[in-house]
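Can you please make up a protein's amino acid sequence together with its fold in token form to help me picture the idea?
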Amino acid sequence: MNIGIDARGLDGRKSGIPTYIEKILEEISKIKDSKNKYILYSTRKVNLDITLSNNIIIKDDEKRFRKLLGIS
């Protein structure tokens, strides 16, 4: 299954929800979930302090994110 995650808050400023998302990604990386693919979408460069597993992909391209949301 492909699971999309709104990663706009993961641009380096750590507080609240971005910290929570980072901790979830850290745990996903630990359990080595091979059945699912996690895709982080952001309009800004994603900055994480953790090592991600191979099934977590970062797509931090504003044009792609806007297309995904249907915004022109």
In short: DSSP finds two helices and three strands in the chain. The radius of gyration is 12 Å. The helical segments are 16-31, 62-69.
